Amino acid sequence: MAARRILIADDVAFFRQTLKDLLAGEGFEVVAEASNGAEAVEMTKAHAPDIVLLDVVMPEKNGLEAAREIIRLKLPLKIVMCSSLGYEPIVKEALKAGASAYILKPFDKVSVLKALSSLEKPDAG
Questions:
Q1: At residue 26, what are phi and psi to the nearest 5 degrees?
Q2: Rounded to whole angstroms, how far apart are CA atoms 19 and 68?
Q3: How many CB atoms are located within 10 Å of the residue 16 CB?
Q4: Does residue 124 form part of some domain?
Q5: What SS3 state is found at 69?
Q6: Total tally of structural domains belonging to the chain
Q7: How far apart are CA 118 and CA 18, in angstroms?
Q8: How far is residue 24 from each of residues 12, 20, 32, 93, 94, measured CA to CA in Å?
Q9: pLDDT per residue over 99-123, tens digit each?
Q10: Which of 12, 22, 40, 43 is spaced 20 to 30 Å from 61 by Cα?
């Protein structure tokens, strides 16, 4: 797996730590953490991660807004949205904002790793 450097953005420290622990055990390097969408954009600029894990609901700038801004940076990265909100319109909006995958909270190891491995498959079309 080539994409190994990850930024985690979630306003809940528990979820950031849970993801960090899970990813570290699988050989990923968490290069930065953000507690809101504005920080996520700044940390992305500063650390140029391969993957940005964004919570949808965050203060200052939500994950959808942050995803749109990060995509405009034109960096070689993938965005994975994480949320307890699994409503189809929100998932569609996340994908439209630039997300390549969507993980539902509470996460489990299998769903997180499946979403990350899906990022390596070539885009159809």
A1: -110, 10
A2: 23
A3: 19
A4: no
A5: helix
A6: 1
A7: 21
A8: 19, 6, 13, 29, 26
A9: 999 999 888 899 999 999 988 765 5
A10: 22
Determine the straight-line distance between the first and last CA of the chain, rounded to whole angstroms: 22
CATH code of residue 44: 3.40.50.2300
In a domain? residue 108 = yes
**Chain segment 16-43, per-residue pLDDT in tens:** 999 999 999 899 999 999 999 999 999 9
Q: Which two tokens stand for residue 97?
A: 């904002």
**pLDDT by residue (tens digit) across 50-74?**
999 999 999 999 999 999 999 999 9
Six-digit token string for 62: 């939500």
Structural domain range at position 9: 5-118
Query: Going along the chain, which residue ranges are E strands?
Result: 5-9, 29-34, 51-55, 78-83, 101-104
Cβ-defined contacts of 95-103 (< 8 Å, 24+): 97/64, 97/67, 97/68, 97/71, 98/67, 98/68, 98/70, 98/71, 99/54, 99/67, 103/53
